[in-house]
C-alpha cells in the first residue's frame, strides 16, 4: 500500500520538458531568436545562405533572428538540418548565456546615470535663489482678454 502522506511531502522537481512550459512567450521568442542567430554564426552562414538552405525568404530569417516571428513547425526540421543541430533543441531551448559585453554596457550606463544625477543635483544646489519673486504672467479676464497692470 502506498503512503500518500510521504509522497506529498516530497519536493516536485520539474524536468526539462516541463521547464519549457514555465517560460513566458517573450522569453521563448528571445531564446529561439538568439540560438538561431548564434548557430548561424557558428556555421558561418549568412541570412540569405540560411534562407536558401531552409527554403524561406531572407526577410523570414531576419524576422526569426529578431524575435518578431517564430518559425512554424513545418520549418523546424529544415532549419535544424541547415544548422546541423538536433531538432529537439527547439523544444527545450537553453538559456541565453550572459554576455561580458552586455554586462559591461549595463554597468557603464548605470554608473554614468548615477554620475549624471549627482552632477545635476549639485547644479541645482549651486544656483542662486532670487530675492524677489518673478512677475506673474498676465491673467485673462472673464471676457477672455488679458488684464494689464
Would you mind describing this structure in some detail?
The chain has 149 residues and is an all-alpha fold. It contains seven helices and no strands. Helix content is 58%, strand content 0%. Residues 1-10 have low confidence and may be disordered. Helix 4 crosses helix 5. Among the domains are: 23-90, lambda repressor-like DNA-binding domains (434 Repressor (Amino-terminal Domain)); 97-126.
Question: Which tags fit this structure?
Answer:
149 residues; mainly alpha; 434 Repressor (Amino-terminal Domain); 7 helices
CATH superfamily of one domain: lambda repressor-like DNA-binding domains
Q: Low-confidence stretches at least 5 residues in length (pLDDT < 50)?
A: 1-10
| Class of secondary structure makeup | mainly alpha
Which percent bin holds the helix content? 55-70%
What count of helical segments does DSSP give?
7
**Which fold name corresponds to the CATH topology of one domain?**
434 Repressor (Amino-terminal Domain)
Number of strands: 0
Strand count, sense and closure of the main sheet? none
- The rounded distance between the terminal residues' Cα atoms is 97 Å
Basic shape: elongated
Helix and strand succession?
A: HHHHHHH
Named at the architecture level, the CATH assignment of one domain is Orthogonal Bundle
Amino acid at each position: 500500500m502506498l503512503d500518500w502522506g510521504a509522497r506529498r511531502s516530497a519536493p516536485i522537481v520539474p524536468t526539462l520538458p516541463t521547464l519549457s512550459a514555465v517560460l513566458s512567450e517573450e522569453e521563448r521568442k528571445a531564446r529561439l531568436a538568439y540560438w538561431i542567430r548564434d548557430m548561424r554564426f557558428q556555421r558561418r552562414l549568412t541570412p540569405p545562405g540560411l534562407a536558401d538552405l531552409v527554403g524561406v525568404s531572407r526577410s523570414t530569417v531576419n524576422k526569426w533572428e529578431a524575435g518578431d516571428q517564430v518559425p512554424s513547425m513545418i520549418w523546424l526540421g529544415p532549419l535544424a538540418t541547415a544548422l546541423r543541430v538536433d531538432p529537439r533543441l527547439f523544444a527545450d531551448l537553453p538559456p541565453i548565456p550572459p554576455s561580458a559585453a552586455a554586462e559591461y554596457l549595463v554597468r557603464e550606463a548605470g554608473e554614468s546615470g548615477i554620475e549624471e544625477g549627482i552632477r545635476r543635483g549639485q547644479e541645482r544646489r549651486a544656483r542662486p535663489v532670487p530675492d524677489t519673486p518673478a512677475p506673474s504672467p498676465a491673467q485673462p479676464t472673464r471676457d477672455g482678454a488679458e488684464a494689464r497692470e
